[in-house]
Amino acid sequence: MRSLDEIRVDIDAIDQKIQESLMQRLNCSEEVVHAKIRDRNFVINRPERESAILEQLGKDVPDDRRDCYLAIVRKITETSRMYQYGILFEQVPELFQDIAKGVDCSESSETVTVQLKRPNIPNAMSAILSMIGDYGFDMERLQLLGYSEDHTAASFELMIHGDISRTHMQKLLLQLSMETDDFHIMAVS
To answer: Which of 65, 95, 147, 153 has minimal Cβ neighbours within 10 Å of its Cβ?
Structure first.
């Protein structure tokens, strides 16, 4: 049986390979978003493609590891989208300007309140909360506003602790607007 130190040496070597692979994947993500910008196709989030990727990648993984493995793949795709939205924000500033009409984004703020609609399916809101955390922001409040008549979607109001004058917050708001329905910036305080 190997010692803990020997195992950690292997883990460190594997982590280096993972880093190299993830950087290559982000390079491909950058190429993808530049091609989309060139084609004026700003759709970054493609849930059906991500579902197909998860199904394909998970089919040969042993049952006892599949859920953990797919959680990692899901996080990689989420991070890839985050990277692409950042580039989209920088290259096509009018996308953010459209969602921020009537909002003073030059003044510092403590909170930003938004309303949005998500599908009423498992994990739909946790993906939003994870996104907010990935950008380094905290939630002050999350309130369910109601369901669509057919209960296929739910509307929420979120108060995010953060400064709207910061580029990072603006990138988050762009991504939220593009990955949800009926997105509105309601208040900045």
So the answer is: 65
